[in-house]
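WARN retry 2 of 3 for item q-0093 after timeout on previous attempt; input resubmitted unchanged.
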Amino acid sequence: MKFRGLIRLLALSAFFITSGVGYAVADDGVSPAMFTANNLWLMIAAGLVFIMHLGFATLESGLTRAKNTTNILFKNTFIVCAGVITYAFVGFNLMYPGEFNGVLGFAGFGLFPGVADNTVGYADGGYTYWTDFLFQAMFAATCATIVSGAVAERIKLSSFMVFATVFVALVYPWLGSWKWGGGWLDGLGFYDFAGSTLVHSVGGWGALAGTLLLGPRIGKYNKEGRVMAIPGSSLPMATIGVFLLWLGWFGFNGGSVLSADPVAVSLTLVTTCLAAAAGGMAAMFTSWFISKKPDLTMALNGVLAGLVGITAGADQMAMWSSLFIGTVAGIVVVYSVMFFDRIKIDDPVGAVSVHLVCGVWGTLAVGLVGEMAGFDQFVSQLIGVLAYGSVAFGCAVGIFALLKATMGLRVDPEEEIEGLDISEHGMSAYPDFQPVSVGHIHPAIMSSGSAASSKAAAAPNYQLDRAAT
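OK item q-0093 returned
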């Protein structure tokens, strides 16, 4: 009965919105009904983007070892809380400073809407000031979440918390102002619809900086430099995470239309879904061809690669261009993961490959295919990629280097082997299960870098057997 009533309410709302019955049109051409619909859609989209943080948490937990699950969930919880607060305090007005020099501007601390900011006079009647903040705040924390996965299982919790706070509060909104705040890249014609570069590549550059300064996990490479696989604790959890992210991306891209325009929103949702599916299929068969076995983790990352790739131009693509972008992203992410493994950059969840590499691809693709394709547009896209890459990477390296010199960046080897759940939190994510030693290998041997240590560290840290009751 409740669902039937909700359906009736939505149908009635749609009738009034499309027919304009009983509503006068405002001076700027936006009726109160459309103004309400715009706000409602953007708030729903904000909720969908919020769900993405649950997706990141479950994906990251599933692709890493069980002994670090509590640590990963704690980081993801902290990121959302800190991201929303810092974005309200400083980030929103740093990203949208109003009139500024195009490079750096700031409209003041806190949230203080003007008299007309919650009327149709704000943002061309698309939404209110409060809706604007809510939607953008959900984006802000994503940058640090991307970094979290790449540095998982060996970074100090306190150091990561400081990095995430600074990166979300200052670096992301400052760089975002260059395009979305009307800055110099916006004036140049650079286009990034929903953040292939502004969100994903910026977070990816931060992830790359973190992995470089931290180094690989113990046991990831043996004495000969050979890559030793470290399986995650739960592929079901990782799969749930990807499907939650896919769902959330409908809000991420669909909400970036910044109105409830039925044509623009529906087109964006279709291109987003097509690219995700194409990315998943391409990664499935590419990894199958290379390894002679179908790899679920590669297929999952292929879906995410397609989503990241389409995000820059989701509103500018048609069916074939969406499929093309997703397919290329799915192929690229497989080879990218293999490449970073071979050059000894240890990224437990493939965040650098998915968000940085495919974010760059998607941004450049706007100049290659779709409604905006052309040489001049490609040049603008390339300039934007290089500008964001150099500054985001430089800032991330600087923050991580400062933390490394002051607080320290990496946990002790003994703590890493034991697991960050115990060493950092004093609790286990799975208290109803008991850990079983892997081969009874002494910790001193495990940290020696021998082939035996690599195999021990590569195995799951738990065999989850129910404790005797």
